[in-house]
Amino acid sequence: MDKLCVFDFDSTLMDGETIDFLAKELGLEEKVSAITAKAMAGELDFFESLTTRVALLKGLETKKVDEICHNLPFITGAKETIAELKKRGYVVIVFSGGFRNATGYAKDILGYDADFSNILHAKEGVLTGLVGGDMMFDFSKGDMLQRVQTLLNINKEHTLVVGDGANDRSMFKHADKKVAFCAKEILKKEANIIIDKKDLREILKEI
């Protein structure tokens, strides 16, 4: 029987928030990270927080976006954990409220099977401040997880999910193994595996 593991990307596989790294380039890191923190704590609607933050990135060159996204730091043990999960029969997928520039690039480095994330809209090589994609809403991860489970014929019992913030809650409902990794309190409340050590290999001891 195949099994499914879904990872969040920002602050789960990657050490930090992609949008904060992008905002730093424009000198807006503090402003954007404050909104990010509230969204991850469940204090702001995810869609509104995402569109507000991306609007602040308007004018950033896409080549700079790619350069930043291709040099993001990964969490300790990310690659090894994914390799071991695949050995154990898991299909490993990433759901990210962040951006394809980062998740698509990291896929080949970390070795997961597919990524679902958002697209930063650009014109003539510059960000317009608009965003669209698979993971725009609070409910998006749970919605997509159910569709992937149906497609792969994998049930809740054989599903493992790993995340750190409020927008991961929707997928926790559809998995028997729910890992809160260095997570916000709002997510810990809904988890049945809590890991506070910043090393993804700790997951392998719990499943």
Any overview of this molecule?
With 207 residues, the chain is an alpha/beta fold. It has a single domain, classed as 3-Layer(aba) Sandwich (Rossmann fold), CATH 3.40.50. It has helices spanning 18-25, 29-40, 46-55, 62-69, 78-87, 100-110, 140-152, 169-172, 185-188, 202-206, and strands at residues 3-7, 90-99, 114-123, 126-133, 159-163, 177-181, 193-195. Strands 4-3-2-1-5-6-7 form a seven-stranded mixed sheet, with helices on both faces. Helix 8 links the parallel strand 5 (159-163) and strand 6 (177-181). Helix 1 (18-25) packs antiparallel against helix 2 (29-40). The longest helix has 13 residues, at 140-152.
CATH class: Alpha Beta
**What is the string of helix and strand elements?**
EHHHHHEHEEHEHEHEH
Helical stretch tally: 10
Distance between the termini: 16 Å
Strand order of the largest sheet: 4-3-2-1-5-6-7
- Tell me about the biggest sheet? 7 strands, mixed
Question: What is the CATH architecture descriptor?
Answer: 3-Layer(aba) Sandwich
Radius of gyration: 16 Å
Average pLDDT, all residues: 96
The CATH topology label is Rossmann fold
Topology overview:
Blueprint: E1 3-7, H1 18-25, H2 29-40, H3 46-55, H4 62-69, H5 78-87, E2 90-99, H6 100-110, E3 114-123, E4 126-133, H7 140-152, E5 159-163, H8 169-172, E6 177-181, H9 185-188, E7 193-195, H10 202-206
Parallel strand pairs: 1-2, 1-5, 2-3, 5-6, 6-7
Antiparallel strand pairs: 3-4
Helix pairs in contact: 1-2, 2-3, 4-6
